């Protein structure tokens, strides 16, 4: 009788440990996603100032600037939990921002403008922080996904509704390509 009771107690303790590990992994993934969300919000808040500065120098590049505004709004409208949707929208926004920076190259006065230079440095810093946040989130999602799929924790995960988290990754193959450098 005591042996059976001991086995039941050990099984319950093991179940509690596995459950708590899954909760911890899920919270880490959610906290990591929050970090990405904060960095993306910082970038979105910087974009209007950047566009206003460029607009003063490159008024005839209106379509590119309008596209950036539309993509920014689209990225901001994606629901917070939609990782894949947000990744696609942010990828398109990043491409459009690259076109804005290319426009700046054509205007030496704009490149020399201190406000634009400050905004460009801020954007570069934020892009680096988004990259770090993305790596952290993907690591946390990987840890949760391993626990959700591994035996025997997958039995507990299935019973308590734990599910895999999607990765925040580049979906456009053109973004993955190595740029060609010609001299």
From TrEMBL:
Cellular compartments annotated: Membrane
Q: Does the keyword section mention Membrane?
A: yes
* Gene3D superfamilies reported in the protein's UniProt record: LemA-like domain
Q: What is its main location?
A: membrane
* Entries under InterPro entries matching the protein: LemA-like_dom_sf, MamQ_LemA
- Highest taxon above the source species: Bacteria
Which UniProt keywords are listed?
A: Membrane, Transmembrane, Transmembrane helix
Give the membrane topology. Answer: Single-pass membrane protein
Family, according to the entry, reads as follows: Belongs to the LemA family.
Q: What is this protein called?
A: LemA family protein
- Identify the species of origin: Rhizobium oryzicola
Q: What is the lineage of its organism?
A: Bacteria, Pseudomonadati, Pseudomonadota, Alphaproteobacteria, Hyphomicrobiales
